[in-house]
From TrEMBL:
This is Tetratricopeptide repeat-containing protein. SMART domains: AAA. The keyword Nucleotide-binding applies. Residues 70-86 have a biased composition (Pro residues). It comes from the Bacteria. PROSITE patterns: AAA. It comes from Streptacidiphilus jiangxiensis. The keyword Glycoprotein does not apply. Residues 166-303 form the AAA+ ATPase domain. Keywords: ATP-binding, Coiled coil, Nucleotide-binding.
Amino acid sequence: MPEDTPLIRSIRAAVATAPTDVTLRLHLAELLLAAGRGEEAVAEAAVALQHEPANGDARTLMLRAMGAPAPAPAPAPEAAPAPPAPSFDWSQAEEQLSDIVEPRFVDPLAAEEPDGEPDEPGWDVERSEVTLADVGGLAEVKQRLQAAFLAPMRNPELRRLYGKSLRGGLLLYGPPGCGKTFIARAVAGELGARFLSIGLSDVLDMYIGQSERNLHDIFETARRNAPCVLFLDEVDALGGKRSNLRHNAMRGTVNQLLTELDGAGADNEGVFVLAATNHPWDVDSALRRPGRLDRTLLVLPPDAPAREAILRYHLRDRPVAGVDVGRLVKATEGYSGADLAHLCESAAEAALLDSAASGEVRMIGTGDLTAALKQVKPSIEPWLAAARNVALFANEGGIYDDLLAYLKRAGKL
Ligand SMILES: Nc1ncnc2c1ncn2[C@@H]1O[C@H](COP(=O)(O)OP(=O)(O)OP(=O)(O)O)[C@@H](O)[C@H]1O
Ligand SMILES: [Mg+2]
């Protein structure tokens, strides 16, 4: 996406504080269009139309934006924007806004950086904007999360009492696209902690010792930023179950992770480790021993309330009219969160193409969404098939009892 000019940035900030102000939003759309950013102008005009479907200016602008030529291929980020409409007085507009828009974007982390200390290279620490209240449905998952993780973590007294037994972390597992990453982020929000998310495949390095050093750096970064949720995604990348050769090469990395989790020689106070995998059966068994990633949490495909929350979320900024969410929720049993996002996108695309073809702007309706259901199918079937085998034949010590219960409930056994 091209970088915003200062004016676009100010108006965008103003729109963010007054999202229902249609005039302001159309102003933004107009500027985007003038800068050759037709698609973004379409999106803003669409939101304006959602608030005021009969607004003539919004409709005209939408049509102009849809007819606008695509931006030149791969423009340099600093490429000069298309010349603005000659009738528009930029400096006056900027002046008008100068005292409305305040403050410009500030980065809380950068602002709090102790003097002179450079930013961490490579590992990005974020602040989490979401909490468990943003996670739709999944009452059971949230309840277990509270009991197994949040309650003891929130309370330093309890933490001390539990001592070593609270070391290690919680392993989230489940089918792809069903909210593991989202939940980890929400946990950081709940704890008021920072969020450091790492895909383990990015840590692994072919040079001897480098993977270990990377892991150590990551834990050190988390410790410096405590309280911090350290989210280790794809922990199965460390798994050695598949080949012994890989297993040997990984041994050092697994051991390093164990050392870091145990906090040997370091203080892990305020570092909350969450790990995730789609394939818990490939996670190195050493990592799953008591005191390590021993507590597991099955993150299930979204239930009805979760699907409703996800659908509403993905339609919130789109020009929808009279969408029967209840009906869609019923028709999307077995869809993952990612599938639902895809569904909404397909429907929006169809409505937009239709509008462009007919020259008549129309809203996204239930019809577009049900039509999209024919193209977008649930993607988690292959996962369920694999999970079924594991739950039936490799449920040692009952570690997959949750999974077994879910498969039974869902009629997949
Ligand atoms: N219960 C929920 N409530 C609200 N949104 C959800 C919920 N579950 C999933 N989502 C949404 O679904 C999308 C996919 O979720 P996420 O990326 O967290 O899945 P994942 O399990 O981490 O997937 P992967 O295995 O591919 O890493 C996200 O955009 C998230 O916002
Ligand atoms: Mg994820």
